[in-house]
C-alpha cells in the first residue's frame, strides 16, 4: 500500500511536469517620442491704425439725475453687557436713645 501510493504520486508529478507549457513573451518595443522642429521666422509687422477724430467743442452737460428713494430703517442694536451686582453697603451707626416720658395711645373713633 505504501509503495503503490508513492508510485501513483510520482506518476502524477511527472505527468504534470511534462504538460507544463512555458510562455515566451517578446521584449516590448520602445515608444516613439515625437520631438517638435525649430521655430519658424517671425511674422511681418502690421500696418499702423488711423488716428481717431477730435471734437473741437464738447457737447452740453447732461441733466442732474433724480433723487434716490429714502433708505429703510436699520435693524435694532444689541443690548449692552449687564453690569455686575454692587457690593453690600457698610452698616449704619447706632441711633441715640430716645427721651424717657409718658406713653400716649391714640384710638381712632368709630
Q: Keyphrases for this structure?
A:
Collagen; signal; Collagen-like protein; mainly alpha; Collagen_Structural_Proteins; 1 helix
Overall average residue pLDDT: 83
Percent in helix: 10-25%
Percent of residues in beta strands: under 5%
Number of helix segments?
A: 1
- Distance between the amino and carboxyl termini: 140 Å
- Describe the largest sheet: none
SSE string, helices as H and strands as E: H
Structural class: mainly alpha
Backbone shape = flat
Number of strands: 0
What multimeric state do the chains show?
A: single chain
| Cα radius of gyration in angstroms | 58 Å
User: Would you identify the regions where 5 or more consecutive residues have pLDDT less than 50?
Assistant: none
Topology, pairings included?
Elements: H1 2-19
How is this structure best described in words?
Keywords: Signal. Residues 1-17 form the signal peptide. This is Collagen-like protein. Residues 42-94 have a biased composition (Low complexity). Residues 42-102 are annotated as: Disordered. The protein is mainly alpha-helical and 110 residues long. The protein has one helix spanning 2-19.
Amino acid at each position: 500500500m505504501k509503495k503503490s501510493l508513492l508510485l501513483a504520486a510520482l506518476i502524477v508529478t511527472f505527468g504534470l511536469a511534462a504538460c507544463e507549457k512555458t510562455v515566451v513573451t517578446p521584449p516590448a518595443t520602445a515608444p516613439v517620442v515625437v520631438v517638435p522642429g525649430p521655430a519658424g521666422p517671425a511674422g511681418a509687422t502690421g500696418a499702423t491704425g488711423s488716428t481717431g477724430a477730435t471734437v473741437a467743442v464738447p457737447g452740453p452737460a447732461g441733466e442732474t439725475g433724480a433723487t434716490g428713494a429714502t433708505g429703510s430703517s436699520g435693524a435694532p442694536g444689541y443690548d449692552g453687557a449687564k453690569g455686575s451686582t454692587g457690593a453690600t453697603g457698610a452698616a449704619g451707626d447706632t441711633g441715640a436713645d430716645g427721651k424717657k416720658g409718658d406713653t400716649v395711645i391714640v384710638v381712632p373713633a368709630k
